[in-house]
Write a structure and sequence with these properties.
Strands 1-3-2 form a 3-stranded antiparallel beta sheet, with helices on one face. The chain has helices spanning 2-39, 66-70, 77-83, 92-105, 110-126, 133-137, 159-173; strands at residues 185-188, 199-203, 206-209. The protein is mainly alpha-helical and 210 residues long. Helices cover 48% and strands 6% of the residues. The chain is globular and about 40 Å long.
Length: 210
């Protein structure tokens, strides 16, 4: 009877050990099913970037060539005259300047007209003469076409007047160099006033001095 009782105790102990082992296995399996999955999550898929599009032509415009810049400059004084606007109304000063060019040199070359115009502009900036074009033109005993403080009538529809207006704008803006740049005096070539001034050159029908 003692042996049977001991055997029964052993069987019960074995059964208990097996039951404990089984419980431990279940706990381990349960733990692996939750924690490991948290640690070994599959990272979210990264969306592939769209392929880079290539452009066959450059986006940045090429720099203009030197030839393109030079093409904006008039090739001659005649071209520059043609390019000048013909405003319906001129300022008082530009009217005086254009009138002086018209009466002094309308029958001369464009260069000769510009030389006359630039003398008036240079005088107005010299500090030795009136500071306005009208002041220079109407200064007593300076221009033979002036009668008192007025000019003779001008044919404003003529080609000569249109050229004088264009030359006046060029002389005023200094966009073309006079052949006698810096001159302050001139006289008609058919007279000899005997001025003690530095002679620069003759341009058409006028002789210019500094």
């Amino acid at each position: 009877m003692r042996r049977i009782h001991n055997s029964t105790k052993l069987n019960r102990a074995s059964a208990s050990a097996i039951a404990v082992a089984a419980s431990l296995m279940m706990i381990l399996v349960s733990a692996n099913g939750s924690g490991a999955a948290a640690e070994t999550k599959v990272p979210a898929l990264i969306q592939a970037e769209p392929p880079i599009q290539t452009i066959s032509q450059p986006v940045i415009q090429p720099l203009p060539s030197e030839d393109a810049e030079e093409s904006t400059v008039a090739a001659s004084l005649a071209d520059l005259v043609v390019a000048q606007p013909q405003p319906e109304e001129l300022s008082h000063d530009l009217t005086c300047l254009a009138g002086a060019i018209y009466f002094e040199a309308k029958g001369e070359s464009l260069e000769g007209q510009l030389a006359v115009g630039r003398v008036i502009v240079t005088r107005s900036k010299s500090g030795r003469f009136p500071e306005t074009y009208c002041g220079v033109v109407y200064q007593p005993s300076q221009f033979s076409f002036v009668r008192g403080k007025s000019m003779p009538t001008i044919n404003r529809n003529s080609r000569h007047w249109k050229n004088a207006v264009a030359i006046a704008q060029i002389a005023h803006e200094g966009t073309w160099r006079s052949p006698v740049e810096g001159a302050l005096f001139f006289h008609a070539a058919y007279v000899s006033p005997g001025w003690r001034l530095k002679r620069m050159a003759r341009v058409d029908n006028h002789v210019f001095y500094r």
